[in-house]
Amino acid sequence: QVQLVESGGGLVQPGGSLRLSCVASGRPFNTIAMRWYRQAPENQREWVAAALSDGTINYADSMKGRFIMSRDNAKNTVYLQMNSLKPEDTAVYYCRAGAERPPYDVWWGQGTQVTVSS
């Protein structure tokens, strides 16, 4: 079982920046892939970025350039640095952990609200 605690959400003006954090516990961090998702009202949850245990980081095409994901294995933490935020980035942002070994279990955080508005 993996517990995930997200933080860093809030209200920011368009063009501003936020950094989200997600701390994982309950399983060796080097055995899990970490991902960020987001879900805006009335939309489906969409994948934002992934940081695998080997350090590989991938982004959804629409997130490249403004969002930067990083992983600190010493702190069991991943971050999502979000720059040049737009109102359409308003969503609940979720952290997801996925085991990289069978049976490939998945765990979700509770989510953190990001609101981009003037």
Helix content: under 10%
Distance between the termini: 40 Å
Q: Strand pairing plus helix content: what structural class?
A: mainly beta
The general outline is globular
Q: SSE order in H/E notation?
A: EEEEEEEEEEE
> Based on DSSP secondary structure assignment, what is the total number of beta strands?
11
Main β-sheet: number of strands, strand sense, barrel status? 7 strands, mixed
**Mean of residue pLDDT values:** 95
Strand content: over 45%
**Segments where pLDDT lies below 50 for 5+ residues?**
none
Number of helices: 0
Radius of gyration: 14 Å
Defining traits:
single chain; mainly beta; seven-stranded mixed beta sheet; 11 strands
Task: Note the topology.
Elements: E1 3-7, E2 10-12, E3 18-25, E4 32-39, E5 46-51, E6 57-59, E7 67-72, E8 77-82, E9 91-99, E10 106-108, E11 112-116
Parallel strand pairs: 2-11
Antiparallel strand pairs: 1-3, 3-8, 4-5, 4-9, 5-6, 7-8, 9-10, 9-11
Briefly summarize what is shown.
The protein is an all-beta fold and 118 residues long. Helix content is 0%, strand content 53%.
Structure, explained:
- By secondary structure, this protein is an all-beta fold.
- Helices cover 0% and strands 53% of the residues.
- It has no helices and 11 strands.
- The protein has strands spanning 3-7, 10-12, 18-25, 32-39, 46-51, 57-59, 67-72, 77-82, 91-99, 106-108, 112-116.
- The strands form 2 sheets. Strands 2, 4, 5, 6, 9, 10 and 11 form a 7-stranded mixed beta sheet that branches. Strands 1-3-8-7 form a 4-stranded antiparallel beta sheet, with no helix packed on it.
- The protein is globular, with a radius of gyration of 14 Å.
- The protein starts with a strand and ends with a strand.
